[in-house]
Amino acid sequence: MSSIRNSRSRLVTTAAAVVLAALSLTACDDGTGVTDEGASANTAATGTAATPGASSAGSDASKDSGSGSGSSAKGSSSSGGSSSGDAEDSSDAAEPGADAPAQKAQEPSGKVVTCEGSTTRTVAAPLTRPVNHMLLTVTNTGRNTCFLYGYPAVRFGEAQSVPPVIEDSQPQAVVKLAPGQSGYAAVSLSATDGSASNGRTEKSLEVYFQGRSGSESVGSGATPSLPAKGVYVDDSLKVTYWQQTMDTAIDW
Fold first, then answer.
1. Neighbour count for residue 212 (Cβ, 10 Å)
2. H-state helical runs in the chain
3. Three-state SS sequence of 80-144
4. For strand 238-239 and strand 145-156, is the pairing parallel, antiparallel, or unpaired?
């Protein structure tokens, strides 16, 4: 009886020991498994966290770097903008000054002056009709409107005096030339019947302009070209008053 009890007790004890051992082993395995899984999980978590962290840090660094670059770029840009702005301001400031003379040279001032050689271009052209005549064309090349007073004082070659004017050719008003416009006068070079004396061929011509009073020339004269063979003149040489149109000038 007691031996059976003892046997049962041993069996129970042994069974208990086996259960305990199994439990211990399981606990140990679980602990190890948990520990391993935890470590793996932690490692994985750490790796995962590390990657975002690194990215985050990289982003932050990039942000900082970007900010720095941005600031730097901004600074450069700002500095460049400033320089550019200054340059633009300087250009803007310089341009009016640089352009002003050109604008002044091109824009009419509204003044009315006397026509003279430096602000006009004079052309002398022999005519076939009327015969023995030449046409003077004066074009205003200046920026101001000018008046052609009286008549041209012409000098052929080395002549010591100017020829007289045809009084009947005097216009009702003084010829007025806006910039680009032309005025005209005719020169009767020689008598058609050959009755005048002192006939000669001249190869040079000077034209002078009269002032308002008509008693003297003003400004510089003009030296229009003559044909290479020259022009024939005699003592009957005379001129018309300045005319507003060519047709009026060659009527005399």
1. 11
2. 2-106, 246-249
3. HHHHHHHHHHHHHHHHHHHHHHHHHHHCCCCCEEECCHHHEEEEEEEECCCCCEEEEEEEECCCC
4. unpaired
C-alpha span between 249 and 133 (Å, rounded): 11
Per-residue confidence (pLDDT) for residue 85, from 0 to 100: 41
pTM over 0.90: no
Map tokens 């044909």 to a residue: 227
Return the closest-CA partner of residue 208 out of 150, 127, 247, 167.
Answer: 150
Token look-up 């019947």 returns: 193
Q: Give the whole-angstrom CA distance, residue 162 versus residue 152.
A: 9
Query: Which residue(s) pair with 123 in the sheet?
Result: 137
pLDDT digits (tens, 9 = 90+) for 103-153: 444 455 578 999 999 999 999 999 999 999 999 999 999 999 999 999 999
Q: CA–CA separation, 156 vs 205, rounded Å? A: 5
Q: How far apart are CA 242 and CA 252, in angstroms?
A: 12
231 - beta bridge partners? 202
